[in-house]
Amino acid sequence: MGRRVGLEVSLACAEAVGLCNADVVAAYPITPQTHIVEHLSEMVADGRLDAEFVPVESEHSAMSCCVGSSAAGARTFTSTSSQGLALMHEILFIAASLRMPIVMATANRSLSGPISIWNDHSDIMAERDIGWIQTFAENGQEVVDLTMHAFKVAEDKRVCLPVAVNLDGFILTHVIEPIEMPDQEEVDAYLPPFEPSQSLDPAKPISMGIVGMPEIYTEAKKANMVALEESYEVIKEHWDGLAKQFGRTYKPIESYRTDDAEVLFVTMGSLGETVMTAVDQMRDDGIKVGQVRIRLWRPFPLDDFMEAIAGAKTLIVIDRALCPGIPAGPVATELRGMMYAKGAKQYVANFVCGLGGRDVTRSQFVEMVQEAQKAAANGEEMTCRMVGVKE
Amino acid sequence: MADEGMTPWKDLALGCAGTEPGSSRRFNTGDWRSRRYPVTDRETCIKCGLCWIICPDMAYSPDPKDEGYYTWDGYYCKGCGICIEECPKDAISWKEEKEEDKYGPACGA
């Protein structure tokens, strides 16, 4: 059995990568991801983790190195944040299109400018279409579990895709939490040694990353699209396996107090836990409010989402990033597009909050419910409001 | 059929990997050439081999029949003209290309 320990979430993430026996870690330090790779570097230096730690000169090199090591058949991990993720941008697409089962912890942080090291989701929202599987954690335990799950899914021969595990910068990375750290035997039982589906092998030469002329590019992209869509069942299957092995349950879309709820919050990441306390408070006051949490962001579990919101009249979609030039945040823009294509009737209120480390309090969520209910009742146009802007 | 020779998406190797070594040899880059192609005047040529060395598409190769000279392969020549630009004796010049001699008189394809 594992041990319940008090551990900084970044260190827990690194320890989880160690328990998963990563072969190669290639990373460049960037706040607030630093402790994750710093700790992995120590683990390798101390001989606790038999891995190659490659201290690259940039994130562009980090992801390039990961593609190379994954192509060679090594279990590969990296971690980054914000500007670092942005610098990886072009290689992120390549990792997915080459079907490299790389796992990356993304310590979500705002993008410059102004320069900000603090938390929001603008980094990962700029990378929605990279073709990676993307999950979101709300606390340290989930970071550990989702990291193990990420390797399991990525390396599954039915998937062969990179996975990004998102954890909020500082709010998770720098906080000490009680975490059940599993034993090596338990992790080994869940995650067998990596057997690459395809690797660079002189005995069976292949070329990776070749030119795709117009006659083949569309077919290559179709194959990638289908691979990502079909990863959904495997993602669920390995969450079920994780529940059996470790006793903790995860779903693509998770619901909280949604029974008879008229208003539903839609959240991603750690802010969801604050929303849960707000929901509890409002339920005590007799307000029929609940919460839907997007655990799996890519591939988006649309059917699960539609089922989760079926009984509600109004949604409050929380965005932690902006879509400049579009009258909604990225999550609301996508959800409205997908929902209404499915014939949904719900009113979708959209609030952008918690940008660049701005705190969002429980009372602000209560106000959002009042505002959304009023707007919905008055049949107001669905807009997007930036919360807490000092006028 | 417009899609003749195309590969169905389900038949592609994982990650669109190339599973057949040297398959790029079949790639007809000569198709990109338009209107003109380089011709070497062997009276002027000093057999330095610079055209062979600098050609980005390996369209030149040693002439097996006439040692020291180089043959030109229109299957690969994109018509960039670097050989013409670099030839130290100006022995290579453009010749207008007609559709019927698309692959040139010395085409080895």
Topology:
The complex is a heterodimer of chains A (391) and B (109).
Chain A (H helix, E strand, L loop, with lengths): L2 E6 H11 L4 E4 L6 H12 L6 E4 L3 H13 L4 E5 L1 H16 L5 E6 L13 H4 L7 E4 L3 H16 L7 E6 L7 E6 L2 H7 L23 H33 L6 E4 L6 E5 L3 H14 L4 E6 L1 E3 L3 H8 L4 E6 L10 H12 L5 E6 L9 H16 L6 E3 L5
Parallel strand pairs in A: 2-3, 2-4, 4-5, 5-7, 6-7, 10-11, 10-13, 13-14, 14-15
Antiparallel strand pairs in A: 1-8, 6-12, 9-11
Helix pairs in contact in A: 1-2, 1-6, 3-4, 6-8, 7-8, 9-12
Chain B lengths: L35 E5 L9 H5 L5 E3 L7 E3 L9 H5 L5 E5 L13
Antiparallel strand pairs in B: 1-4, 2-3
Tag the structure with descriptive keywords.
heterodimer; A: 391 residues; alpha/beta; Rossmann fold; 2 domains; six-stranded mixed β-sheet; 12 helices; B: 109 residues; mainly beta; two-stranded antiparallel sheet; two-stranded antiparallel ribbon; 2 helices; 4 strands
- Supply the CATH class of the domain at 29-101 in chain B: Alpha Beta
Oligomer: heterodimer
| Alpha-carbon Rg of chain A, integer | 21 Å
- The helix/strand order of chain A is EHEHEHEHEHEHEEHHEEHEEHEHEHE
Major sheet description of chain B: 2 strands, antiparallel
Count of runs of 4 or more consecutive helical residues of chain B: 2
Q: Judging by the overall fold, what is the CATH architecture of the domain at 29-101 in chain B?
A: 2-Layer Sandwich
Q: Which stretches of chain A are poorly predicted, pLDDT < 50 over at least 5 residues? A: none
CATH architecture assignment of the largest domain in chain A: 3-Layer(aba) Sandwich
Kindly name the structural category of chain A.
alpha/beta
Helix tally of chain A equals 12
Poorly predicted runs of chain B are none
What is the straight-line distance between the termini of chain A? 54 Å
What radius of gyration of chain B results from the CA coordinates? 17 Å
